[in-house]
Amino acid sequence: MTKTYKPAEPIWCAGCGDFGVQGALERALIDLNIAKHDVMILAGIGCSGTLQNNVGTYGYHALHGRVLPTAQGVAFANPDLTVVAVGGDGDGFAIGAGHFVHTVKRNPNLVYIVMNNSVYGLTKGQDSPTMDSEGAAYGLDATRLALSIPGASFIARGYSRWSHQLHELTVAAFEHARAKRGFAFLEVLSPCVTYNDTYASWDSMLDNVDDDPNYDPTNMSMAFTRGVELDEVGRMPAGIIYRNDNAVGREVPPAMSKQNLDPAQHLDSYGKIMASYAV
Ligand SMILES: Cc1ncc(C[n+]2csc(CCOP(=O)(O)OP(=O)(O)O)c2C)c(N)n1
Ligand code: SF4
Ligand SMILES: [Mg+2]
Q: How far apart are CA 22 and CA 188, in angstroms?
């Protein structure tokens, strides 16, 4: 009898925004007709990272802050997989910030969904880089950080409470990475009801650029300007903030999964290497 891994039940607190992120992700897989065995979800450490236990795709729980280098390894080794990295704002923008910058720059073909609750949820409520500092509407804005990095090809922000738009953004992120246009970065504002309940403030702070007929997400200078203008009045954009439909995602051929890894094929070269060490 074939034994198969059974997806876990979510362990999030009632009201946690991460439920909405998982729902949008599962619905996107169904809508795009992507089989679960063609998907690998890699997660960072945090409440958010437990998402990968629940979906029934291939999964991997990476070290805290290291989900992006690990996900890139998977994407480069097997370009036929749909690779999704997920994690929290602490994971992605504090300990993992350097990897975030270089992944945006490198533009590999994968989706990155950050569940931003502006707090370290799992470790019980410490400040994260995206938490408000005194007098500011919002801490680090990772969408603007990403915009400033050459190579950025897809930057979006959703809100777990806006489920319809979140579903559309998740589908768009999958389409971008699967069309080999590169790194699809989707930040989802996903409140932590236990340690930093931001539902009320985010309800009133978001400006949906998807609803603005004058907003052109392919125009980078417009994306920058809108972000700064909104920040000046204590607001921030949601929707597809920037998209380059002509981008080409990075691959590293020949992919390991396309090579003949039969050990018998390599005995000769292995023997030569071993002989070179002999004294
Ligand atoms: C190398 C390392 N440093 C610190 C920790 C402790 N730690 C676990 S989760 C976490 C932060 C979680 O915050 P976030 O990434 O925002 O995820 P959330 O729980 O909010 O979803 C920290 C500091 C760890 N597991 N590993
Ligand atoms: S502590 Fe916060 S982030 Fe973690 S499951 Fe509960 S509500 Fe969600
Ligand atoms: Mg967090």
A: 11
Distance CA 81, CA 45 (A): 22
Length of the chain (residues): 279
Domain count, the chain: 1
pLDDT tens-place string over residues 110-156: 999 999 999 999 999 999 999 987 755 578 999 999 999 999 999 99
Q: Which domain holds residue 48?
A: 18-254
Domain-located, residue 97: yes
Q: How far is the CA of 89 from the centre of ligand 1 (A)?
A: 9
Among 66, 73, 122, which residue's Cα sits nearest to residue 94? 66
How far apart are the C-alpha atoms of 278 and 275, rounded to whole Å? 5
Ligand 2 close to Cβ of residue 119 (< 6 A): no
> pTM of this prediction?
0.95
